[in-house]
Each structure stands twice: as C-alpha cells, then as structure tokens.
Amino acid sequence: MNYRTSVALILVAVFAVAAQAGTISGKVSGVAGESVVYVDTIAGREPPSIF
Asked: Is the pTM here over 0.85, yes or no?
C-alpha cells in the first residue's frame, strides 16, 4: 500500500469516528445569544465501546 492510500484511509477513519458524534438540542437559560454547553459523562451510563 502506498503513502497516498494510507493517508486516505486514515482520513476516512478519522471522519467516520467524528461522524459518530451526536447532536444535543434544547433550551439553555442564561444570557441571550449563543452559548457553549459542556456535557460531562452522564452518571450511571457508560459510553459505547468502539472496539
């Protein structure tokens, strides 16, 4: 396998992992305008394993 093929496969893998990220929607109380929300792990739930 040559260098370009290896890089292409790595990029596809990176984008595939990023595509698994979910979207969270809802209301945020606080200041008006855009907000940044940090979501930590949910108590009692374990994230799914990718392997």
From this structure: no
Q: Which residues, 6+ apart, have CB-to-CB distance to 39 below 8 Å?
A: 24
Give, rounded to a whole angstrom, the gap between the first and last alpha carbons of the chain: 24
Residue 19 lies in a domain: yes
Is residue 26 in some structural domain?
yes
Q: 40, 8, 43, 10: which is closest to 24 by C-alpha?
A: 40
Q: How many residues are there in the chain? A: 51
Could you say which DSSP state residue 43 is in?
T
pLDDT digits (tens, 9 = 90+) for 12-47: 988 887 777 667 777 767 777 777 777 777 777 776
